């Protein structure tokens, strides 16, 4: 696990997580406007859908989002504009994650409009699935107070979210030459980290946090941004884990440092690590350079 974190740091994962967290923070206002408009028209589903989602956030963040939902629920003119703004801003954050994955896997970057289209499709799918998942989990838990019902109410949403994250890994990372892709280990790790981070960070803010002392009225904003940064970093850690597992399966112990795209795939990198294992000649781009080169001496030099 430590090697995964070190590799992510080499690929500028923390900096990319900061950009993703900022994009997610900017998308809060258009999302709150659209969600408030929808929930105000379906009041019977408001508590069933919104409350489970808000419980996953720290208390200060949940209060902020609840206030914005109530304030913006009275306006209907901003709904079409807000959903467009939300899709554009949020897809920017996922597009940043896809760029990091291209660096991690050392693959050619796709055009920006392709990445933005894939990211927007993932956001739209999450808008349709996440509320349903939250509502089903609460409904199952409310039907019976037994321990088994509570376990199912927790395991079912967690499993569906894991499948969503795995689908994002599958779509966002282009590996056409790899038949068996590693997506579920990183997806499971991402969801576990999301749960642990949200729980521990909420406890820390409620008991030990002194954000108001340092940030004053901006304490809630600071808490929200830091929480989003942790969630974005967990997503990148999951992608890094999948990449490491694929490299280990291919017999590649290390990867080139981040930089320009290289035409070498996992099979070529495996040949570089041990050329004697495969009779296939190495590509010309992978031919090692001579260690020393003799330069011609000038006529006037000794």
TrEMBL record:
Keywords: Cell membrane, Membrane, Transmembrane, Transmembrane helix. The keyword Transmembrane applies. Its main location: membrane. Residues 272-302 are annotated as: Disordered. InterPro entries: Virul_fac_BrkB. This is tRNA processing ribonuclease BN. PANTHER family: INNER MEMBRANE PROTEIN YHJD, UPF0761 MEMBRANE PROTEIN YIHY. It is found in: Cell membrane. One of its GO terms (cellular component) is plasma membrane. The chain crosses the membrane at residues 20-39, 117-141, 147-171, 183-206, 212-237. It is a multi-pass membrane protein. Residues 274-302 have a biased composition (Polar residues). It comes from the Bacteria. It holds the Pfam family Virul_fac_BrkB. It comes from Sorangium cellulosum (Polyangium cellulosum).
């Amino acid at each position: 696990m430590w090697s995964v974190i070190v590799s992510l740091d080499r690929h500028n994962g923390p900096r990319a997580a900061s950009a993703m967290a900022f994009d997610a923070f900017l998308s809060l206002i258009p999302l709150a406007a659209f969600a408030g408009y929808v929930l105000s028209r379906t009041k019977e589903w408001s508590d069933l859908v919104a409350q489970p989602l808000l419980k996953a956030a720290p208390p200060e963040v949940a209060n902020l989002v609840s206030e914005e939902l109530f304030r913006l629920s009275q306006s209907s003119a901003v709904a079409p504009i807000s959903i467009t703004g939300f899709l554009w801003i949020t897809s920017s954050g996922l597009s940043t994650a896809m760029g990091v994955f291209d660096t991690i896997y050392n693959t050619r970057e796709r055009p920006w409009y392709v990445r933005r289209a894939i990211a927007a499709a993932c956001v739209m799918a999450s808008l349709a699935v996440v509320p349903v998942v939250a509502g089903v989990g609460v409904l199952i838990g409310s039907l019976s107070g037994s321990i088994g019902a509570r376990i199912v109410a927790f395991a079912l949403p967690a499993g569906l979210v894991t499948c969503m994250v795995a689908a994002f890994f599958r779509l966002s990372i282009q590996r056409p030459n790899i038949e068996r892709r590693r997506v579920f280990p990183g997806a499971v790790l991402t969801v576990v980290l999301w749960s642990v981070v949200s729980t521990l960070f909420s406890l820390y803010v409620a008991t030990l946090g002194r954000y108001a002392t340092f940030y004053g009225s901006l304490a809630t904003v600071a808490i929200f941004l830091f929480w989003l940064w942790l969630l974005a970093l967990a997503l990148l850690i999951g992608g890094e884990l999948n990449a490491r597992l694929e490299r280990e399966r291919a017999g590649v112990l290390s990867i080139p440092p981040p930089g320009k795209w290289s035409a070498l795939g996992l099979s070529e990198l495996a040949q570089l690590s041990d050329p004697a294992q495969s009779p296939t000649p190495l590509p010309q781009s992978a031919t090692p350079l001579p260690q020393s080169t003799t330069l011609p001496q000038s006529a006037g030099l000794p």
